[in-house]
Each structure stands twice: as structure tokens, then as C-alpha cells.
Amino acid sequence: MTxxxxxxxxxxxxxxxxxxxxxxxxxxxxxxxxxxxVPISEWVTSQFPVARDSHTGEAIAFFVYxxxxxxxxxxxxxxxxxxxRSWFSPEKTRAILAGKRQVWGYPLAAALGVxxxxxxxxxxxxxxxxxxAGIPLGVTFSFLIAGxxxxxxxxxxxxxxxxxxxxxxxxxFGFTIATVAGIVLGRMGLERxxxxxxxxxxxxxVGDLPEERLTMVDRLKIGLEQVREIVGxxxxxxxxxxxxxxxxxxxxPEEMMLRIMGGEAWWSVPAAVVVGVPMYTNAAGVxxxxxxxxxxxxxxxxxxxxxxxxxxxxxxxxIILKQVLTLxxxxxxxxxxxxxxxxxxxxxxxxx
Length: 352
Known about the structure:
- The chain is mainly alpha-helical.
- It has one domain (53-351).
- The protein is built from 17 helices and no strands.
- Helix 6 (120-132) packs parallel to helix 16 (315-321) and helix 8 (152-162) runs antiparallel to helix 9 (164-187).
- The protein is globular and about 70 Å long.
- The protein starts with 15 loop residues before the first helix and ends with a helix.
């Protein structure tokens, strides 16, 4: 038997100290970069031959800011959930949240969403991380709905605009929609409508070694592998979704919305939802539109239904979610959440 001395040697594994030092260093770099996204986006926009306050300037600035923001969040969250998943396999996670304890998972997930200052597309990375970790689908939907709909930024701005009473009512309705919608979706057994690669991710092992024998470096490698697999599949759709959202954000048809939502007709609430779904902005971005609509005489319930649909059912969010959920599951999700939003709009118009 002869030995081929020209055969390439296997790549040397990075020493453990490089993992222990490199991962925290990378986290610090990503954190610092995240904090500089606004000035970076403004500088990049200024390099284009368009006025910053023009429709095109607004669209460019929105795209340049939102794409790296969502990708950075996606990378960080998927890495952390991948590492955590090495301790909590899908089977363990489902066991923890099974039976009676899962009932508390819905309001807890909704409460986490309320405390998370993310817009809809920024909440998607956490949603993907939860789904890939094997957390029940209904519980993850409760978070996905509550995060953008009743986050702290939107509530604070709404409080300044309409007062604490209405802001509190909005919080109660939004939290209830997120919790109830999650329960409804969870009871429907929709896991079979996840994309195939997500189901395989949940069913597969978390590493080559038995769980109890994994070292910390092994767990960090699992987190990095999760980033490669998940971010590698969805990054292009993040660009597509936010690109569409940026175009819409830069060309908001405010006059048309005022004509639709300015009256008291029964159809104004569903019309507001239909108008709001294709749009994309965060809570801070939609509040000025809400203020303008209320100033022009739009009904409060109709305006709040519009606000909820913009930040909880945006088209760019659905495009990104398409890489995790099938079209049937997305349609069911939209139908359940839209029903709650319609109920909120009609009730606000009836009592106020």
C-alpha cells in the first residue's frame, strides 16, 4: 500500500481560544455597526444625485438603513438561538411548552413582543429563530403579531398623540389579538405548512456529538452553521421585501388614504386594512400618517385599523416569511390577524 504524499491535508481546525475571543469580538463589531446604521444610511443616500427629502431620496434612505438592520438582527439572533438549541433540542423545547404550560406560552410570547422595539420585518429574525428552535408555531405567531403592533415605540408615540386612555385600550386590544390569534393558529396544527427545510431543521440533530458531550466550541460552531444555513436561504428575500417596502415608503399615497378613511361608512375599516397591508413602515413611521389622518377627520377606529395592518401585516414581511412558511400558512395567518384588526376597528368606532 502506497501513501499519496501529494494529497491535500485536511484543513486545520481553529484553536479554541480563537473561538472564545473571536465570537465576542464579532458581536461587539456587529453591535457597533448596528448603532451607526442611521449615519451610514444618510451618507450613502447623499451620494445619489437626488434630493434627500424627495420621494426617491426617502426610498433610498429607507432601503439602505433597513437591509443591514434586518440582516444584522437575523445573523445575531439565529446565531444565539443556534447555540441555545444545542442545549434545548426541539424535543426538549416542545416538552417544556407542552400541555398546560403551553397555555402560558402565548401571553408570554405576546408580552415579549410588546417589550421588543422592532418593526414587522425586524421581528421576522426572532420568529425564524423561534421556529428553528422548535418552539410551537402558535406561540411564535403571538410574538410576531405583538412585536410590531404594540411595541414600546408605537405605544409611546400613540400616547403623546391621543392620550393614555386610548393608548391603553390600543395596548389591550393589540395584546389580545396577538394572544388569541396565536392560540387559534396553534390549535389548527399548521406545522405541516412550514417550508420543508424548516421541518427538516427541527427534526434533525443539533450536532454530530451527543448533546451532553458537546463542548462550548462545538456549540458555537452549531450557531455559526445555523447562520450559514438560515441566513443563506432568506437573505435575498430580505432584499426583495425591503426593496418593495422602500418603494412604497417613499411614495405614500396620503391623499387617497384620506379619501378612503375620512368618512363613517362601514366599509372604511376593511378598506383601511386593505390599503395598509401593501405598505411598510415601522410604528414611528406610521404615527405621523395617523396624526395627519386624524387631523383630516378620519374615524379613530378606522385609523387604528390602518395602523395595525401597516405594522402587523406588511407585504415585505410576508415576502420574507415566504421562505419559512408556505403560501397557505401565510394566507391563514393574514386571515386570522386581519379578523382581529377588523374587530378592533369596528369596536373603536362604536365606543368612541
